Structure formats: structure tokens, C-alpha cells
Amino acid sequence: MNNSEKINCHLHGLMEYALVCQHLANQQQGDQPVEYFAAENIGAEDESEVENVWCKSCDDKLIEQGEWNDISEAFAAPKIVCTACLQTIKNRNLKGEL
Fold first, then answer.
1. Which residues 6+ apart lie within 8 Å of 93 measured at CB?
2. Cβ atoms of residues 1 and 48 within 8 Å
3. How far apart are CA 7 and CA 80, in angstroms?
4. Residue pair 40/49 in contact by the 8 Å Cβ criterion
């Protein structure tokens, strides 16, 4: 990834990014940990890999729809986060510590 493919995180500075469903991105302190799913999306132009992470509710919607489409994507409403923030989200949900 070159610098034009990175984001400037207010906590971590210039970082690679990931896409996270709105439910994981909007978790608050004290929320219950949730199961999450992750996949890499390889860009056609430069073969860059962007990690995509979504919660169980989004996965249920994905299964219901049979694919990522307008309905399942609107439900997930992905947000861009830096990879360091993504790791924090994963760790909190793995350890059960929000």
C-alpha cells in the first residue's frame, strides 16, 4: 500500500485501513463482546489487501441474502478504521473486555 491508500487515524497516525461493520465500529464501553468474521478483499487494480470484519448479526443478514448486496451492505454499513483500531476491536471481542 502506498500513502494514498492509507488513512490518518486520530489515534495512530498514518495507517493502513480496514472495513468494519457499523455494529463493531460503534461498540461502547460495557457492551457485550460479539462474535465476528473476517475476510480479505483483494483490490483488482493493485492487488492490495483490505481486511473486512463484520459481526454475527451482519453474518446472519449475509446468509439470509445469500451474498453481499445492497440490503446486506446497508445493514452492515461498513466504516473505515485503521488497522490498529481494528486490532483493538478484535481484542476486545476475543477477550470479552469492552
1. 24, 33, 34, 35, 36
2. yes
3. 9
4. yes
Gap between the Cα atoms of 93 and 37, Å rounded:
11
Residue 88 cell numbers, joined: 483493538
Q: Which of 25, 1, 39 is nearest to 80 (CA)?
A: 25
Averages of pLDDT over each 10 residues, the chain, 98 residues: 75 93 89 87 61 94 96 97 93 64
Q: Enumerate residues 6+ apart whose C-beta is below 8 A from 90.
A: 36, 38, 53
| Residue 10 and residue 79 in contact, taking contact as beta carbons nearer than 8 Å | no
Q: What is the dihedral of CA 69, 50, 87, 74, to 10 degrees?
A: -20
Q: Which residues pair with 98 in a beta bridge?
A: none
CA gyration radius, the chain: 14
